[in-house]
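Methods — Computational structure assignment.
A single polypeptide chain was analysed. Its primary sequence is given first, followed by the predicted tertiary structure written as C-alpha cells.
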Amino acid sequence: MLSRKTLTAVLAVLGAVLGVIGTQFGLALNVAGLIAFLGAAVIYITGEAKADKLRMAAQKGKWKDPKFWIVMLTAIVTALPEAGVVLPIDPGIINAVLAAIIGILFKVKPT
C-alpha cells in the first residue's frame, strides 16, 4: 500500500505533468474528475492520519523510554551538521557514544 508521502509526491508530479501538457497542447483538464481524485486522496490521507494517531496513543509509555530519547538525540545530532550547525565535537564521535549507550540500554537482562 502506498504511504501518504508517496501518494502526495505522485499527486504533485502528476499535477505538474498535466499542467504542462495542458498548457503546451491547449487541453482542458476535467475539473470534476480532478476534484474527485483529490477528494479520494484527501480521504485516504486523513484516514491514515487518524490510524497513526491511534497507534501513537497506544504507545504512551514510549515518551518516557530513555531508549527513544537517545535515538531521537542521535537523529538530531546527525541532522545538525546538514543544517549548517557546527558542533564542538565531531558528530561521528557523539553518535558512537550514543550508540554505545543504546547498546547498554538494549542489553538483554537475564531472567
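Note: The CA atoms of residues 100 and 106 lie 10 Å apart.
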